[in-house]
Specification:
Rossmann fold; 12 strands; alpha/beta; globular; 17 helices; 3 domains; single chain
Length: 449
């Protein structure tokens, strides 16, 4: 390993001993850009790696709110503004009990390169809280969001930092957050948040964007390797926005999605998943996927009993992990390979462990990395920002066409970068190299800041 690279990774480990997710993200990116480092000794002279792995700013704050019983609850809020070299900070907010500084930093670090790959002028950030929206009333969620924004508003703005949604933060939460921001600021800054409802400045196709974008990327990756989605079986972990709309678009290309999951287990339907029913259960009733069997008794539901989701034991041509980070372990990767999987597409953020990714690549499996394959959401958020700036709405078809072009260009960048640096066919390395090059060029141009 390059000595400079080795030194930086070791320093990150020493400085952040209790942040495994962040260290994993740093190693995953930096180890693949070694060929570029060897060609650019000026990076070491300007401490570029030391600067790129250190957030420009981390904001942590308390979020007190009152539940429906009148009890005072205190949660912790975060915003990690990681890198603004190519544009205002941009990245989602996650409300989930697992949220901590390590996860926020890993997500923010990934976001830098993901946003760079889109070709749009947006920097990298992430934020959220350990608040759990599950089981909360609308009024409780509103009170929490209002308290959260009462602090966050000081640190964001449509030309400074533009949050969006992530796990636990959908249209309802974005609405409450935007309403509080507008009230405090006494101005209508439509571009300060994305993922808004269409009635007050949101974009058509935003809800579908990450899932659709994943399939656009998979289409291009398979095409480049003389294959297609037509006639393929697909398993998709998760049953939120990304999974649902990846399923919808995959089916439109002639694939058959046979399994989906949630945190409790997975449903296998050999006849093909009834997506309308999944939407009803998850988007309308906010229920559990096990309820699928109430309408389709011939389907099979398997409870999750370990860290390895049972969905990866199902024989499939294409696997799409769309739930959460590190959900696809080495053990699961081995099962997928043994069952003849052709390709894996990361719809969630860093859903494969490092060991799983290495095993898949080592066995000739096509891997679409998250920072490229799930960039459709943030790309469409940037399209929403454009619409807010010009006070104009694009049609659904216009947004989808723009998204398709962006995802096609992202794949081309990954493919070309992999070929230039001697790792053709490795789109994980290609994505890291392409994203890193754009950020590095910007940082070198702007001086030691």
């Amino acid at each position: 390993m390059n000595k400079y690279l080795d030194k930086v990774i070791e320093n990150v480990r020493l400085k952040n001993p209790n942040e495994p997710e962040f260290l994993q993200a740093v190693k995953e990116v930096l180890c693949t850009v070694e060929p570029m480092l060897n060609k650019h000794p000026e990076y070491e002279k300007t401490a570029l790696l030391e600067r790129i792995v250190e957030p420009e700013r981390i904001i942590t704050f308390r979020v007190p709110w009152i539940d429906d019983k009148g009890d005072v609850i205190v949660n912790r809020g975060f915003r990690v503004q990681f890198n603004s070299v190519i544009g205002p900070y941009k990245g989602g907010l996650r409300f989930h009990p697992s949220v901590n500084q390590s996860i926020m930093k890993f997500l923010g670090f990934e976001q830098i390169f993901k946003n760079a790959l889109t070709g749009l002028p947006i920097g990298g950030a992430k934020g959220g809280s350990d608040f759990d929206p599950k089981g909360k009333s609308d009024n409780e969620i509103m009170r929490f969001c209002q308290s959260f924004m009462t602090e966050l508003y000081r640190h964001i703005g449509q030309d400074v930092d533009v949050p969006a949604g992530d796990i636990g933060v959908g249209g309802r939460e974005i609405g409450y957050l935007f309403g509080q921001y507008k009230r405090i600021k006494n101005s209508y800054e439509g571009g300060v948040l994305t993922g808004k409802d269409i009635c007050y400045g949101g974009s058509l196709a935003r809800k579908e964007a990450t899932g659709y974008g994943l399939i656009f990327f998979m289409r291009e990756m398979l095409k480049a390797n003389n294959n297609s989605l037509q006639g393929k079986t697909v398993t998709i972990s998760g049953s939120g926005n990304v999974a649902i709309y990846a399923c919808e678009k995959a089916v439109s290309y002639g694939a058959k999605v046979v399994a989906m999951s949630d945190s409790s287990g997975c449903v296998y339907d050999k006849n093909g998943i009834d997506l309308d029913l999944v939407k009803q259960i998850k988007e309308v009733e906010r229920g559990r996927l096990k309820e699928y069997l109430n309408k389709h008794s011939d389907a099979v539901y398997t409870e999750r009993t370990s860290d390895d989701s049972p969905i990866w034991e199902i024989k499939t041509d294409i696997a799409l992990p769309c739930a959460t980070q590190n959900e696809l372990t080495l053990n699961s990767a081995k099962k997928l390979v043994a069952n003849g999987v052709l390709a894996v597409g990361e719809g969630a953020n860093m859903p494969c462990t490092l060991e799983a990714t290495e095993y898949l690549l080592g066995n000739g499996i096509l891997v679409a990395p998250a920072k490229a394959a799930n960039a459709g959401g943030v790309a469409t958020s940037a399209i929403e920002m454009t619409q807010n700036s010009i006070r104009y709405y694009f049609s659904f078809e216009e947004v989808e066409a723009k998204l398709d072009r962006i995802m096609t260009n992202i794949f081309k960048s990954c493919k070309e970068s992999a070929e230039i640096y001697g790792c053709a066919g490795n789109y994980v390395a290609g994505a890291n190299l392409a994203g890193f090059k754009k950020i590095a060029d910007g940082m070198m141009a702007q001086g030691i800041v």
